[in-house]
Design goal:
401 residues; alpha/beta; ten-stranded mixed β-sheet; 12 strands; disordered N terminus; binds S-adenosyl-L-homocysteine
Length: 401
């Protein structure tokens, strides 16, 4: 990292307790800060980043009856109001004071790719002009925690990504900033509005590393899960991580039964280290210990994601090692043929090789699936649409290991 970038990284990591790309376990305090702290850290908080009890506190502080908080939540998540002005059963004066204290942002739909009944990819512009992507996936039995009639959205958690995996478009230009809770919730509601379909399965697998934005992601999860929010069951939410071992342990201690997917992509340190720089910080053994910890705290099994990249990680020996790791932590394995990224040299193995890799896992008794998708058209890996559309280059940074 050059000096300018590392200065910027420092600024980003000290931005506030809610915005951290800090890998240091000392930063892993398990606290839910009261609304005051949440508000104090931001110039103007978006009202859709608040939990119901925080809404109540805010309303009370404005001298209003606490039942108003439920009315506000109803306007936000059930009636999907876009302005305080629309909340017509609130006193006019309260609406004005809410508008003075909170923002009520929305995502601008910049581009939509894909058609009815197929995968749709959305490019959204955030209120500060940054771009993020979400992918809406129709019923698919192979997806995490989903029944075949579930509609899944793949949500971004950061603008860019600091982890720089060699094969990934999201990491190509480094990290820009964490998403706020409302910006994650809004990806769901805006995609629902734009597509006219109800979403009932969420995967935090878009751009960014969710566990590096732990507090904001968990805030979003609680809002998405709450009956007063979007009302989607925790078991229908999956967080994917590139392997932040301390944060996996922290997630294990969260009471909500959300699912965990771990991006392994290499079964030996040698192979994984070549494509995922994070392996230098948390090697496979450290990662598996965190997965053990997770498995011992949760009822449901975790999933290993394993992208198959031609001549990089698709050898029989990797399949056998992967089977051993999966057995140790009772993980399911989801094999994903690599989606080519413009400008990167990687490609997916031929179908025969993919099937052979799968059959080795199955021979070892591992529950494994192979995503047999059509692929490289609009399912193109997350992060690419943003790169194609973005005109100005952001100031960016990577975590150095
Ligand atoms: N940062 C998190 C979540 C976002 S990436 C993580 O790494 O898990 C979501 C998944 O997409 C990861 O498994 C990631 O490795 C995978 N991915 C990234 N680029 C890809 C590509 N070009 N083709 C297929 N999968 C890709
Ligand atoms: Fe970041 Fe995940 Fe992409 Fe790695 S795979 S660069 S952690 S988004």
């Amino acid at each position: 990292m050059d000096n300018e970038a590392s200065n910027h990284a420092r600024k980003l990591t000290t931005f506030g307790q809610f915005s951290s790309v800090n890998l240091c376990p000392a930063g892993l305090k398990k606290t839910i800060l009261p609304v005051k702290s949440f508000v104090e850290y931001r110039a103007k908080v978006d009202i859709k980043s608040l939990q119901l009890h925080e809404l109540r506190e805010s309303v009370r502080a404005l001298g209003e009856a606490v039942y108003r908080a439920r009315q506000i939540a109803e306007w936000l998540y059930k009636k999907r109001a876009c302005s305080f002005e629309e909340m017509t059963d609130l006193p006019r004066d309260l609406r004005a004071r809410l508008a003075g204290q909170f923002s009520l942002g929305k995502l601008e739909v910049v581009r939509v790719l894909g058609g009815q009944d197929t995968t749709k990819k959305f490019l959204f512009r955030l209120s500060d002009g940054n771009l993020v992507e979400s992918v809406l996936i129709p019923a698919s039995p192979a997806l995490y925690g989903s029944r075949s009639d579930r509609r899944t959205i793949c949500v971004s958690t950061q603008v860019g990504c600091a982890y720089g995996c060699k094969f990934c478009a999201s990491g190509l230009e480094g990290f820009v900033r964490n998403l706020e809770p409302n910006e994650m919730v809004d990806q769901i509601t805006t995609a629902e509005k734009a597509s006219g379909s109800k979403i009932d399965n969420i995967v935090f697998m878009g751009m960014g590393e969710p566990l590096a934005n732990f507090d904001n992601v968990m805030r979003a999860v609680r809002i998405i899960n709450a009956p007063w929010g979007l009302g989607i069951g925790a078991r229908h939410m999956t967080v994917s991580t590139s392997g932040l071992a301390p944060q996996i342990r922290r997630l294990a201690e969260e009471p909500l039964q959300i699912r965990l997917a771990v991006s392994l992509h290499g079964a030996s340190d040698e192979v994984r280290g070549r494509i995922m720089p994070i392996n230098r910080r948390y090697n496979i053994d450290t990662l598996l210990s965190a997965c053990d910890y997770y498995a011992s705290h949760k009822k449901q099994h975790l999933t290993f994601e394993y992208i198959l990249i031609k001549n990089i990680n698709d050898a029989d020996e990797q399949a056998r090692l992967l089977a051993k790791h999966a057995r140790r932590v009772k993980a399911k394995v989801n094999l994903i043929p690599y989606n080519t990224v413009r400008g990167l040299p990687w490609s997916r193995p031929l179908q025969d090789r993919q099937e052979r890799f799968l059959s080795i896992l199955r021979d070892y008794g591992i529950a494994a699936t192979l995503r047999r998708e059509k692929g490289d058209d609009i399912e193109a890996a997350c992060g690419q649409l943003r790169l194609q559309t973005k005109k100005t280059k952001p100031v960016s940074s990577w975590v150095s290991f």
